[in-house]
Amino acid sequence: MAELAGLVQRLEVAVGRLESMSGGGGGVSGPAAGSGAVSAYVEAYDGLISGPVAQYAALSQKIGGDVQKHAEMMKQAFSCQRQLLVTASRSQKPSESALAPLLAPVSKVIQEVQAFREKNRSSPLFNHLSAVSESIPALGWVAMAPKPGPFVKDMQDAAMFYTNRVLKDYKEKDKMHVDWVKAYLSIWTELQAYIKQHHTTGLSWSKTGPVASASGGAPPPPGPPPPPMDFGEKSSGGDSGAVSRNALFASLNKGADITKGLKHVSDDKKTHKNPALKTQTGPLPTGPKPFASRPTAAASPARTLPPVLELDGKKWKVENQEGAQGLVISDTELKQVVYAFKCNNSTLQVKGKINSIIVDNCKKMGLVFDDVVGIIEVINCRDVKIQVMGKVPTISINKTDGCHVYLSKDSLACEIISAKSSEMNVLVPNKDGEYTEIPVPEQFKTIWDGSKLVTTATEIAG
Fold first, then answer.
1. H/E/C letters for each residue in 45-59?
2. pLDDT tens-digit profile of 317-354?
3. Which are the contacts of 378, defined by CB distance < 8 A and separation ≥ 6?
4. Exposed, middle or buried, 21 (CB in 10 Å: 0-12/13-18/19+)?
5. Any residues with CB less than 8 A from the CB of 57 and at least 6 apart, and which?
6. Which pLDDT tens digit goes with each residue over 116-128?
């Protein structure tokens, strides 16, 4: 099946080339444009699609389920980007306003890939989905200048947290998932090499030919993100996840025009050059506010959403709780999961044995639970406290500042995995019932021992 899927992918690329040569897919500038052939860098991109992308798609098909569905979206994303490359190879770069519609198809698929992951947080293949979702913004390299290659590398690194978890879960169980990780990461490695060779300082546009424009009914650029909705179905991994990346993507499209909205402040309105302004009784003249045009009301609806504590299928949803002390989930089953989202100054107790717990975008929250057979995930949180009464095999802390984990005697063997987090402490029970607080290392030292990199935790004296 994997070989068949790879063959189908290569056939799709061949069909795309034939369409280009017949006038449906674009050509190149100069003499080659007249012959209808695609440019050298489009052909090189076809090699990327028929190589690592096809291998990733084939392995995804063998794994099946949500991973296969995700891979179909990824194939569509690369197909959209190929069409953009064809357009760039035969057209001159348009204005910034005209460029946005050309980038819209890729941006739309990126959002769909990320939304699919958020809708399937209870999926047994969630780590696979997360690896793809965290790194697919790499396809935004076409809007990056002058260093699109390093941008792709950053996005690839963002996937490593989840690909490492896939390797950990399947290394001794199923080699196919290990091969899937290698194939997927090779996409971004090959893309970096491709960019270095053909688009070192940014997407290469033709110097001749017509100015590029969105034709053939291309969709309009995406509008602002919708207000927060049911997180279990619609939201996108925290306020700082997909929404901020899409906003960044849109801002980058402005290029040099991004500073045109700023106003110059004369010296007579600067307090450090005109001390008399500091003694004025009225309001001081204000300088330019670069972000004043950015609507601040977009984040406010989250505060007005009603609190939620309900069982939706197999998921307990605990959302938008403010100052709610004593929240309890008692009627639990092993197959259920708990998802706590935007709960502030609240406490939650989960009784019984359940599958997993996710704490996302919470501040000053306390969680007490009995037994978890899977994993506890703490993501994008601040000042949270987790207490284990029974057993838990794994605790994951990611992008969190301030996390105290109280272990029970039965949970001392659990693994604690952390990334991009600070102020983490694990409290271990003593024989007298008191706890000993131990900080989780945040600083590491890496050396080359002649054959491999060796990393050890370091302690900061002071």
1. HHHHHHHHHHHHHHH
2. 999 999 998 899 988 999 999 999 999 999 999 999 99
3. 359, 384, 386, 395, 396, 397, 398, 400, 403
4. middle
5. 5, 6, 9, 71, 72, 74, 75
6. 999 998 999 999 9
